[in-house]
Structures are given as C-alpha cells and as structure tokens.
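>> received
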Amino acid sequence: QVQLVESGGGLVQAGGSLRLSCTASGRYAMGWFRQAPGKEREFVAALSWSDDSTYYTDSVNGRFTISRDNARNTVYLQMNSLKPEDTAVYYCAAARGIFPQISPRIPSLYDYWGQGTQVTVSS
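>> returned
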C-alpha cells in the first residue's frame, strides 16, 4: 500500500504564496485535487512520471506550478497569487497509469490518495 503524506497548507492572505508537499514512495503519475465545502473534488494540477509533462486547470494556470524532486520522492505544488476562491482542502493523489493515456483530470483514475491539507486564503 502506497502512503501519501501531505504538508504545507495553512492560512494566507490574498496575493500570498504557499507550497504544498506530497511524499510518496515509488514512481507514479501525480496529481493535486481540491475540494471546497459543498463542492465536488476538482482537478488542480498533474505531473506525468514518464516525461514530466504537466497539466493544469485553467483557473490556476500561470499561478500554480507542480514539480517533482525524485531524490526526495516528493511532489510539490507551488501556489502563488492566491485568491480566496482557492480556499479548499487540497489532496495529493498517485496513479499507476500513464498520462495522457489516462486522463489526469479524473479523480477515479487515481489509485492512492493523501489525507488532505487545508488551504485558506483570506481576502
């Protein structure tokens, strides 16, 4: 069983930055999702393990960056220019499949999930 350990959430003012980290043993396609109260879980960003291709939802493109440190088995989500609408619980996920043969945007295609970390952006 793969364990995903997230860290880095917190409270930040609008316009600020946070960096989320997710540690996972093994080599997987990785994704970040978020879920705000009363809303469905939505795709944020993903990173292919085969060629390091990246994928973003439109609302975070240009503000968020997903990256990987293979030596540390860690995936990061650097979040800049944060907005109140970015407030959510953020989840790290790992997929055994290969992007884009499987869609990085569909939660059910991921095999393992972290426990979530709260990100709150105040206005």
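>> The first strand starts at residue 4 and ends at 7.
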